[in-house]
Amino acid sequence: MPILKEVKDELGDAIKIVKIDIDKNQALAQNFQVRSVPTLILFKEGKAHWRKSGALPKNAIIDVIKTHA
């Protein structure tokens, strides 16, 4: 998603974005109960703190990240 690149560009090293190909990583997708694409999951200290299926605008993603920072 190009939006994720924009989010990374704006927040820089404060965040790490990892994109997973669920077709190649089916076990991981099952583990996190990913049922639709895209699914965004925010992790902090190794734990999922927020998740949302479906596309979001850049500002909404940034707001979520800042809320959980």
Characterization of this structure:
By secondary structure, this protein is α+β, with helices and mostly antiparallel strands. It has a single domain, classed as 3-Layer(aba) Sandwich (Glutaredoxin). It is built from 3 helices and 2 strands, in the order H-H-E-E-H. The protein has a two-stranded antiparallel sheet. Strand 1 and strand 2 form a beta hairpin. It starts with a helix and ends with a helix.
Topology record:
Blueprint: H1 2-11, H2 26-31, E1 39-44, E2 47-53, H3 58-67
Antiparallel strand pairs: 1-2
What is the count of distinct domains?
A: 1
Order of helices and strands: HHEEH
Distance from N terminus to C terminus (CA atoms, Å) equals 22 Å
Mean pLDDT: 96
**CATH C-level:** Alpha Beta
